[in-house]
Description:
Helix content is about 40%, strand content about 35%.
Amino acid sequence: MVPIILGTIxxxxxxxxxxxxxxxxxxxADKAARAAAVGEPCGAAAAEDLPGSWSLGTVDCGGGDGDxxxxxxxxxxxVLFPGFNIPVNITAHGxxxxxxxx
Length: 102
């Protein structure tokens, strides 16, 4: 019975880490889009509030159409503990209205 309980705990912990990574990716994408909307570098804004154990996988400040700025962020997925990341990205999309002229 102990292996089943421990296995369940490990799976629940991994699910919590993935959920937290989704939350961090969404926040980073929103911050990067806001920075790009006012003409600041979006990569630095995306990494600004990330905890040290989470690392950016991809940052795409693609621009957007007209007045809309879009940003796609990918964070590397931690396995069992933060800092031991695998190169599988959890992605998030952020957008904001452009506040400067392109």
